[in-house]
Design brief:
Layout lengths: L1 H8 L2 H8 L1 H21 L6 H42 L14 H11 L3 H11 L7 H9 L7 H37 L5 H19 L1
Length: 213
């Protein structure tokens, strides 16, 4: 029992997953989307209707955060950070390694392969015919080097892009998107009545008029 657990905890793929900003945020958001509604549903101190409403609202919010993050960070900020480093930040620094990869996808494939043994890398490259994705020097490094250079400057740029994307996506855009999406979704599920919301808006408007008067 201890052996498989130890192997899992020392697995390089798991280490990379934990160390990656985008993977960490995605995992945390998925757990929140499951855990928070679940905690609300098992709370016996609130009414069943309130539990359903609060749990659904929390799930929809976390799901919206995840969708915004996935749609924004990976295709926009991570790729943008890679391109920025490649074309501007490290343009005159060949040792940074950006010139060795045509795009972020190729670099991430390289990192995934470089965590495996030389034999495994050779096998994967051969059976999947991935050789053409890499330049000759990278192919040689993957098929011969025991510890390939993982190009820390590229990883730093990509992680910085993920961090910025996390802040922009989760702190700024997700609340705005969820505000426009959650209430219509709750009404569609029958958990919120449109009339109640409109009445509340009318009450607030009346209060504002009374204060003005």
């Amino acid at each position: 029992m201890i052996g498989p657990i130890t192997s899992a905890l020392t697995n390089s793929g798991l280490t990379n997953l934990v160390q990656s900003t985008s993977s960490s945020v995605t995992t945390e958001t998925v757990l929140k989307a499951i855990g928070r509604p679940g905690f609300i549903l098992i709370d016996n101190d609130i009414s069943p209707d309130t539990k359903k409403y609060a749990a659904a609202k929390e799930f929809l919010y976390q799901a919206t955060c995840l969708l915004v993050y996935m749609a924004l960070v990976i295709p926009v900020f991570k790729k943008g950070a890679f391109k920025f480093g490649q074309k501007y930040l490290y343009k005159d620094m060949p040792e940074a390694g950006f010139a060795k990869f045509k795009d972020l996808k190729t670099y991430e494939l390289y990192r995934k392969l470089s965590d495996k043994s030389v034999e495994d890398r050779q096998h994967i490259l051969n059976i999947n015919k991935l050789q053409d994705r890499f330049s000759p020097d990278i192919r040689k490094e993957l098929t011969t080097a025991e510890d390939p250079d993982k190009f820390t400057k590229i990883k730093g740029c990509v992680e910085l892009g993920s961090l910025i994307g996390s802040v922009v996506g989760l702190a700024i855009l997700a609340p705005q998107v969820s505000h426009a999406f959650i209430h219509p979704a709750l009404r569609m599920l029958g958990l919120e009545k449109k009339e109640a919301k409109e009445n509340k808006a009318d009450d607030n408007k009346a209060q504002a008029l009374n204060k003005t008067a």
